Amino acid sequence: MKISPLLEGKGLISFEEITDYNLIDEKQLRLKKRKNSESVDPGVEAKKPKFLVKKNVDRKKTNKSKVKFSDEVTVGEFDKSDKQEIKIKKVKKLKNSKSKKAKKNKSHNSNSTSRLNMFKTDEDTENNFDQEDFETKMSAWFELALSKELLRGLYEKGFYQPMPIQKLVIPEAIKNRSNIIGTAQTGSGKTLAFGLPILTQLIDSANTNEFNKDTDSPAPQALILTPTRELAIQIKDHLQVCSKYKDIKIACVVGGISQLKQERLLLKNPEIIVATPGRLMQMIEEGHEYLNNIIRIKYLVIDEADRMIEKGHFSEVEKILGLVNKDDKVKTKRQNFLFSATLITKYDGDFDENKPKKEKTEAQIKREKRAKLNSLVEKIQMTKQPKFFDLTTQQVTAENLLESKIFCQLKEKDIYLYYFTCKYQGRTLVFANSIDCVRRLTNLFRLLKKTPLHLHANMDQKQRLKNLEKFNAQENSFLIASDVAARGLDIPGVKHVIHYQCPRSAEIYVHRSGRTARSTSEGLSVLLISPDEINLYRKIVKTFKKDKEIKDYPIDLDYYKSCESRVNLAKKIDELQHQLNREKNDSNWYTKNAKLMDIEIDDEILKETHVDDELVSKNRRKLSQYKQDLDRLLKQMIYPKFMSKKYLEPKNVEEILAINKSETTALNDFKNKINNKKKVKKEKI
Ligand SMILES: Nc1ncnc2c1ncn2[C@@H]1O[C@H](COP(=O)(O)OP(=O)(O)OP(=O)(O)O)[C@@H](O)[C@H]1O
């Protein structure tokens, strides 16, 4: 058996190791294969189970279950009664037994060859579909009981190995139809962990014509709820690509986009609806027939579940739950999935340094986790005990994420941000706490000719999507966003996440940072912390015990100084521009309204609102001068320390800039700093 690179070397467990398989089927397949020399007759194979089936064996009663529990992966059978411990399902540590591995690989191959014939389309036969390549690369998926059409889609996407959360959740969800609660780091593939089991089961029912069998009016089969529109669209696209070899219709019901268009798509009776709660509830209340039938859904997913059930945020979620839980029979049969990277990480303790510290005991933490899970189960009204998969580590943030910080004064933040975007190449995502701050930074960085993109909840939805698309498409794009972009968004190649302001909660820190270092890529997060944010910073550090992990980001002071003059000038321009606009708007407001109402303005008021023309033209001249100065500054190079001034001929500037940028990356600078510190420490010892 091949182990996912993410599992390798970490002593993590594999789901395959904890299941018992129906070996008779496997033997029969092998015998058949031998008889037919190369491949098994697809006709015969079709009558056999397509995948190895987990036997209904009570592990507790078998002697094979001498197992150890790995700290890093918790497979818990969650118990509703608060008094009982979370039952840990027995799991075996992965052993590197060669003979066992070889045996398994053999069985994979013999089994998969026969299945392969069914994956082929007519086009494949013409285009020489590489069966062997498919079989070798995809073998790790074969035991997860996925439908053949999905395997083909995954192969084309280059997803040759299931990620750990997928490896654990998928077979459990398909074979046992369990309710699932899953938590794993950001970028660890949770979407497909719930998406693939649902798609497989839908494909199976489509193949047996089971959709809407018992009723005349069609109904959605699955509902996926997400907190943001962008995330809903992303999930829809992701599932659609994976299921391209089977016509499973997926529709988005999200706000900010033409309702008419969505209604048209709903006329096609999509099996899966991915929705944000607000628009979904609105359309249901307006009496949309197909959506009203969500009371019959067979699969319910609540992504970013901790956010979705936050008090006061999503009253619509509760209304939707009220609807889907109306019919007891449907509710009992429904399969539920709850996922998030921060499902149980909330820190409710005290982070005030002046108060005595009370460390929680392991038992207390466990109790709290259980209580949180209990409340989730109750809210969703799961009738069957869920299986709980916790793949988060102590670090909580993604494994390949390097975390850093810069302590600075409030007014220095703009300079550090500019410093960063000038010094380093790579897609950069900046988070601010308020929409006003996003707007101000966008204006400022436009003046600095940094072509920033922006994203916040008060923007037109089309513009939001357009900006996200541009951020995706351009190589060194730079997006300034509010926390509407913090959760779930999967933008490839984001190299840096900068927290311009300290996030208000530790969970948001995890999600924001998780926009980089996704899947197997590396990424860097930089927290800019001003004195008034120290408490927020402490909260993050305490929640995740990260006091040693978040190191200072190294700053090149010469470079910083060059940035300072530009940013300060740009700020002056921004302020002056605002002042001029304000004055213009004020005087316009009075004269415009007076005209509209056909009244004469009192002389006194006119005097008060009168804009001093001379002052205005003086400010305009000043503004134009500042702009010219800034232009001149921006044309110069922010030269790195190691370069002498003789290189700074204007024609060489671009060239040098390119060389400079290709040599240094933010991650390398940070890693070098850490390594140098380690060296110094060693030398001292
Ligand atoms: N088996 C796989 N092999 C390779 N890449 C994968 C696999 N499964 C998912 N991915 C990719 O990994 C990335 C992260 O996946 P996904 O968006 O599902 O993460 P997530 O755990 O939901 O993250 P978040 O907590 O931020 O929402 C995506 O680009 C996805 O396409």
UniProtKB/TrEMBL annotation:
Region (Disordered): 94-115
Similarity comment: family membership: Belongs to the DEAD box helicase family.
GO molecular function, one term: RNA helicase activity
E.C. number(s) listed in UniProt: 3.6.4.13
Pfam families: DEAD, Helicase_C
Upper taxonomic lineage: Eukaryota, Metazoa, Spiralia, Gnathifera, Rotifera
Keyword line: ATP-binding, Helicase, Hydrolase, Nucleotide-binding, RNA-binding
Signal peptide: none
Catalyses which reaction(s): ATP + H2O = ADP + phosphate + H(+)
SMART domains linked: DEXDc, HELICc
The UniProt record lists the keyword Acetylation: no
Name the record gives this protein: ATP-dependent RNA helicase
Species in which this protein is naturally found: Brachionus calyciflorus
Domain Helicase ATP-binding: 171-361
